Amino acid sequence: MKNDGRMINAFVPGQGGLTEAEARLVDRRTKALGPAYRLFYKHPVHLVRGEGVWLYDTEGRAYLDCYNNVASVGHCHPRVVAAMAAQASTFASHTRYLHETVLDYAEALLATFPAELGHVMFTCTGSEANDLALRIARAATGGTGIIVTETAYHGVTQAVSGFSPSLGEGVPLGEHVRTVPAPDPLRLSGDLGTAFAASVQAAIDDLTRHGIKPAVLIVDTVFSSDGVFADPPGFLAPAVEAIRKAGGLFIADEVQPGFGRTGSHMWGFQRHGIVPDMVSLGKPMGNGYPVAGLVLRPEVIADFGAKARYFNTFGGNAVAAATAMAVLDVIRDEGLQQNAATVGAAFRAGLADLATRHAALGPTRGAGLFVGQEIVANGDPMAADAAAAARIVNDLREEGVLISATGPRANVLKIRPPLPFSLDNLAVFLDRLDKVLARESVKSK
To answer: What's the confidence (pLDDT) of residue 4?
Structure first.
């Protein structure tokens, strides 16, 4: 379950009670796609349609999606689909021709960031954005050292997988990579910001001792793969100060927490009162269309840009830009950032209420519509219960609710629904989780 290359919530071949048709589909998948792919859930879900916060299987059964931030504004949002189709039927090409759409989007996107972040470079995936960020950081600092948290995930390219420890021991870390403990208030003593910064400083010192100049500290600003750590606001600032004092840069990975998900701010780093040197974007940007990017300070890219050209055939193409613009418009027009704040607060209150009746629920963490719920044994917040977390995730799947699990101990429920998720949707989730926890309580006796 922990950091061995297996996905926390994964289908195990030969198990899961598949129907004959499902078994044939799994066999086809294995033969065509090879052994490296994974499926969610003990009993995989065969999905064929999505609408809003709901997904539907081959039998027409509805599943409440409490996990997919890729469809950030809801599955198959009509405005996004219309924008995508309209541009695809008109013109689609790369950024080496003059075209207004990519500029309109770039200007609208940059307007959501602090003024210090003045450029955006487009890619297709968050992995590519982080790969590009590393290239630029190395050119800007002359360093090669990378600092990440112990269970971080930042992507799958050759370079980025080397600083994504959550991929497991089968994917070696780069020799210039150092890991630091997640900012877990249960396990780091004293002031969280001071403690986390001390860990970063220790990593800086170790890199320097081995003749390696630090280049970057990169974190997902809600630490989603580490177990979801969002609070207290501001705790990241001392660590950012430490890496800059050492001559390195700070990269905020906003692939998961960005685009209004944290509720109080458009971007997760803003909760900490800091301005990164670079910000990587991905998944929610195109609501399922592959568009991503890197927002950065002009001074960081100046030398790199003068010496090296950047080109990406599909990054920032006209269809990508039109689709991403529609997503940005929907977030604004439908008040989805405020919805994330309102429903997210109710989410945590609802889980706190369930915790009064179910000892399996430990600490609840998160911001907006990004929630991490510890599953523990006997009400002990330090007694992680990965087996119970796996059962809860799979039992919820049987109840028609989709979530996953995360964290170094594989015991944190990862809850991250599309941004239109409503209070009525929340009531459904809490009711079904209550039923699952009641059964779990019986099993533990």
So the answer is: 44
What is the residue type of 277?
D
Q: In whole angstroms, what is the distance from residue 218 CA to residue 332 CA? A: 28
Confidence of residue 7 (pLDDT cuts 50, 70, 90): low
Q: How confident is the model at residue 12 (pLDDT cuts 50, 70, 90)?
A: confident
Name residue 373's amino acid.
Q
Contact 263, 367 (CB under 8 A): yes
What's the CATH number of domain 20-73+335-444, 3.40.50.720, 3.90.1150.10, 3.10.350.10, 3.40.630.30? 3.90.1150.10
Q: Does the structure show a pLDDT above 70 at 103? A: yes
Residue 117: closest CA among 298, 259, 284, 243: 298
Q: Tokens standing for 362?
A: 């430990």
Report, as an integer, the average pLDDT of 254-275. Answer: 97
The answer to whether the beta carbons of residues 124 and 291 sit under 8 Å apart is yes
Residue whose pair of structure tokens reads 């704040």 in the numeric block? 341
What are the backbone dihedrals phi and psi of residue 224, each rounded to the nearest 5 degrees, phi first?
-65, -40
Q: Which amino acid is at 137?
A: A
Mean pLDDT of all residues in 259-288: 97
| Distance, CA of 158 to CA of 140 (rounded, Å) | 21
Convert the pLDDT of each residue in 199-223 to its tens digit: 999 999 999 999 999 999 999 999 9
Domain 78-333 has CATH 3.30.950.10: no
**Phi, psi for 241 (deg, rounded to 5):** -60, -40
Q: What is the pLDDT of residue 364?
A: 97
Task: Say what percent of the chain tops pLDDT 90.
Answer: 91
Which H or E run contains 292?
strand 292-296
Each domain of the chain, given as residue ranges in start order, spans 20-73+335-444, 78-333
Q: Using CA atoms, how far apart are residues 270 and 117, in angstroms rounded to an integer?
A: 13
The count of residues in the chain is 445
| Dihedral sign from CA coordinates of 280, 127, 259, 399 | negative
* Backbone phi, psi, residue 323, to 5°: -65, -45
Q: Which two tokens stand for residue 349?
A: 């209150």
Determine contact, residues 231/365, Cβ cutoff 8 Å.
yes
Q: Given the DSSP bridges, would you call strands 47-51 and 54-57 parallel, antiparallel or unpaired?
A: antiparallel
